[in-house]
Amino acid sequence: MIVDENGATVANYSYDPWGKVLSVSENAAVAGQPIGYAGYYYDRETKLYYLQARYYDPETARFISRDPDPGDKDDPITQNAYTYANDNPVMLVDPDGNRGLTTLYRTVAGALTYVMVSGAVAKSLVKKAVGKVTKKVLRK
């Protein structure tokens, strides 16, 4: 949906989960604007979405070229070089054509877990050190 400065709807688009256009309703002010499904640029001539690293075809629900990222050897779904959003477009998106967000989320979650665990360990060590210093000061 696109709204103008007054909040009035000037365009409305609907898509299936794979980005295939189901309906378009737009006024002349925005007719032909290039932003489509999931915020991707849509090329009306080729009927492909541009995702920076490669083009995606919503008719076949596949990219038209191989993924430059070879995938995760422990996750077979990421090894198919043509899948969009790890074959799960309802829950995931592929923001730049390199890989679905699951992998990104896993990486971020892993990093956050590391930071939280490291922080908890550091906090525990600091508490012990402060406790020892406090006991020594109180004994004197």
Automatic annotation (TrEMBL):
It comes from the Bacteria. InterPro entries: Rhs_assc_core, T6SS_VgrG/RHS, TEN-like_YD-shell. The keyword Repeat applies. Pfam families: TEN_YD-shell. Keywords: Repeat. Residues 1-90 form the Teneurin-like YD-shell domain. The keyword Iron-sulfur does not apply. NCBIfam families: Rhs_assc_core. This is RHS repeat-associated core domain-containing protein. It comes from Anoxybacteroides rupiense. The lineage of its organism: Bacteria, Bacillati, Bacillota, Bacilli, Bacillales.
